[in-house]
Amino acid sequence: MTNKTPDIVIVGGGNAALCAAITAAEAGARVLILEGAPKEYRGGNSRHTRNFRCMHDGPLSVLTGSYGEDEYYNDLLLVTKGNTDENLARIAIRGSQESQPWMEAHGVRFQPSLSGTLSLSRTNAFFLGGGKALVNAYYRTAAALGVEVLYDAHVSHLELDGDRITRVDFTQHGTAHSLTPRAVVVASGGFQGNIERLVAAWGPEAENFLIRGTPYNRGDVLFDLLDQGVQSIGDPTQCHAVAIDGRAPKFDGGIVTRLDCVPFSVVVNTHGQRFYNEGEDVWPKRYAIWGRLVAAQDDQVAYSIIDSKSRDLFMPSVFPPVTADTIPELAVKLGLEPDAVAATIAEFNAACQNGDFKPTELDGVATEGLDPPKTNWARPIVDPPFYGYSLRPGVTFTYLGFKVDAQAQVQGATGPVQNLWAAGETMAGSILGQGYLAGFGMTIGTVFGRIAGKEAAAYVH
Prior knowledge:
Cofactor: FAD
Oligomer: single chain
Pfam families: FAD_binding_2
Domain FAD-dependent oxidoreductase 2 FAD-binding: 7-433
Low-confidence stretches: none
Number of domains: 2
Protein name: FAD-dependent tricarballylate dehydrogenase TcuA
Mean pLDDT: 95
Organism: Aliisedimentitalea scapharcae
């Protein structure tokens, strides 16, 4: 337990929290991070990330070409269908360009994108060593700046008195503690680790969801403050949910369980029927809709089927595919009715048209007379061996969060809470009303973490 009352308490220990802590400490504030996870699991969902989406006017570090503000914003509009706060979204987008060199200056190293990683070399900067390396680099930087960290520190309550937070209550190793910092930054993520909360929002089907992120994001601080009248933003049923390998663990499977084979496959439900256009758009703009699509199917499960010519076109799951020499044999191994699957594949193959197949871009190689259609990368599935993966919804983080302003300040019932800021997933619903754009969660966390740290330090001083 800390001996001195810190100027700023930061709730959470992931990317957004660390960016806030480093920024505040560099401004001269005494900072304490309360991380709910044990040290070996520190970092929240940031441990599982690989990249962040970055605006740039020309080549920047490992990024190629240019990626301007308007193109970036239009990409966001496409996935959110306009359900975003334009002002906050543009702050995140513009802030990403200056954040990239800031990240390098604070220990993060980058590498060129690998083949098969969603074709993001122009838009997304990849972390050398992945998200865990980023988290460790930030913790080293924070320690050098004098930031104190308490692990296994479960924050249960922030006392909101009028327009100020007056007390922070937490437990560590079974002992209750209270602090009275001058400012608080909440960066403790969504509530996806709390299955009971997911069931309350989604219904009983949420029992079948897999949580690809940390089990420590339970939403305790989020709901504690919402119960005290802090303004919320976002729909509790909206989330970053992708289709992951059905064999993944219930919690913390991370990015290695994601399946990127969908654009090159036929996806069927438990009845052996297709239900959506697998080739609707390039994968970085569509991979995050497939969690919800699978969640809407019976038993919240689907199956992706490819043939040998597509085997090496995507980054594979950590689990090997189910393999067979014929489609009926594959269906049996997947637990599906073989005649139904064989009929679906035959119908799909008959609808495929000739074209110039281009796996990394929209190629217009489409089906004809098929409902639902496949509008790109539609090649007949005829070359054995055949491969199959089971798909389940993998929830990364939920979008219900705090309403904040351009300074990341949390809004209370009648106005801003004077000494409370939020960053990362806990306020991302302001920008991500629905859908997701690859790497954008890290962008929001980095930009608004830095803003929150700067504003909290200015308030303290």
